[in-house]
Design brief:
Elements lengths: L25 H5 L8 H14 L2 H6 L16 E13 L6 E12 L2 E14 L2 E9 L2
Antiparallel strand pairs: 1-2, 2-3, 3-4
């Protein structure tokens, strides 16, 4: 009796909302294969790292002057979507940039959103997260 091969599974969508699958999008940055070319791309990859629970990537892409010694991710929070509301500067032609976003989540069965304006800068040639202001 002939065995059927399992059906190929579609690639997993990237949590950042980009058009590529996670492995070809933010997964490349998380694995250290590519650096984010813009502040917005770094923001998206950091959001995906929260979704994936990748604290090491989050710490690696945090400016050393503001980086915490340890990052304990809340396992009870499930990140459900990212909206980029504005991106100012943060391209190859800039040294700094800001990204305003809304990250949606579910915690304890209830929906919520984190609305933040994040600041980014170049450090040793790569974009890093500096800090952010929580917005109402």
């Amino acid at each position: 009796m002939a065995r059927r091969s399992p059906r190929p599974q579609p690639p997993t969508a990237c949590p950042c909302g980009g058009p590529e699958a996670y492995a070809a999008c933010c997964g490349r940055a998380h694995r250290g294969e590519a650096a984010a070319p813009t502040a917005e791309a770094l923001m998206r990859s950091r959001y995906s790292a929260f979704v994936q629970g990748d604290a090491a990537y989050l710490l690696r892409t945090w400016h050393p002057d503001t980086r915490p010694a340890v990052l304990d991710l809340d396992g009870g929070t499930r990140w459900t979507g990212l909206e980029i509301l504005a991106a100012d500067d943060g391209t190859a032609f800039h040294a700094t940039g800001t990204v305003t976003f809304r990250a949606h989540y579910r915690a304890a069965g209830r929906p919520g959103a984190l609305h933040e304006r994040s600041r980014f800068t170049r450090y040793d040639g790569a974009w890093v997260y500096v800090d952010g202001d929580i917005l109402a």
